[in-house]
Amino acid sequence: MEPFDIYHLFDKLSIAIFVLRLTNAEKREFLIEMANEENKKACGVDVKQFVGMSLRESFPGIYDIGLPEGYYKCVSEQIVIDLGEFDYGEHGVPVQTYVIKATPLSSDQLMISYENVSQLKRIERELLQKNQDLIETNKSLEEFAYITSHDLQEPLNTISSFVNILKSRYFEKFDNTGRRCLDYIEKSSIRLSNMIQGILSHSRLGSNATITDIDLNIIVADIKEDLMKALHEKCATINSDNLPTLKGDAIGLRVLFQNLIENGLKYQKEGNDPEIKIQVEESENGGYLFSISDNGIGIEEKYKKKIFQVFQRLHDDTTYKGSGLGLANCQKIVNKSGGKLWVESIVGQGSTFYFTLPNNLK
Ligand code: ADP
User: Fold this and answer.
1) Is the CB of 321 under 6 A from ligand 1?
2) Segment (H or E) for 288
3) Quick check: 182 and 175 in contact, CB under 8 A?
4) What confidence tier does 66 reach under pLDDT thresholds 50, 70, 90?
5) Do 295 and 274 form a contact (C-beta atoms < 8 A)?
6) CB–CB of 32/53 below 8 Å?
7) pLDDT tens, 53-64?
8) Ligand 1 test: best mutation among 199, 258, 263, most atoms within 8 Å of CB?
9) What φ, ψ does residue 117 adopt, rounded to 5°?
10) What string of DSSP letters covers 191-243?
11) Which helix H or strand E contains 350, and what residues bound it?
């Protein structure tokens, strides 16, 4: 059997490595003792060509970015050092980003291993830029929604006041069809006004958020108190786990819990006693996974995404009253906090709304 060649293995490694020997501590002079093939791929230079030569003469650019200081610390203190990210380029190779590590091998030898992370950095920069663009687009969409809905309110106010005048002063002069038309105009302008108010408050959600410590048990207790009459009339129960105290925006969290609880009470079969359960568990990344479940009518699989969109309702106003904004608001609050909101449901048995919240809401 042929003897195993350790240099062959060194050459085949898919990480770029070279070995240095400290020749003059004071001047931080090193000799290049070994280098593997991978160097060519990683930095575009065949470092093997420079074996037996001084580091300073072969790669003066390395001295310009101060790396030999770290190399010296590695051998003198005999410690592995993650030197971090460096931008470097010479021998006609453009500047690229490398992550470099120094490992001591003997009292005066060390191994430098490095990775070219330029492509990863480029992708990271592109992602950051895209994220920034998205944030700006979202912001301008919110501003657009706010400005247009604000401006729409004005002509609508004019219509509403003239309808009021017509109703109060001339109602008797209209025949039945005229009166019915007037009623329709009035109802529609009220509906339109509610929708505009809804868009306004949706676009403003979270814009003046103040972050404080929020005891969610208090939020739920307040909601229960406000809903006391409805809970009594519907023979409803709300059972909650002991909830955590979070850093967050009290208004947003209140809107979130209130909408989900109210929906659980509302979307029920006539005569059913609503049972709402609020549960929480700590998630792996230090945040929480909450669930609010009900024993209501449930939601068909095909509508599980649609219901989170603005003004999307599965029922008309005569069966279940609503604005179609509750879940869109919840979605916005949870997303702004860096969490996720989704629903699992069995038609006829009930729904569970899940959401995650980090412990340091933005
Ligand atoms: P709204 O309740 O004002 O209609 P939401 O945005 O809160 O608006 O809800 C959107 C739609 O999702 C509702 O119209 C309803 O059809 C459905 N929905 C929401 N919550 C529940 C629930 N707990 N059970 C069954 N359906 C629900």
Assistant:
1) no
2) strand 288-293
3) no
4) very high
5) yes
6) yes
7) 999 999 999 999
8) 263
9) -110, 20
10) HHHHHHHHHHHHHHTTTT--EEEEEHHHHHHHHHHHTHHHHHHTT-EEEEPPP
11) strand 350-357
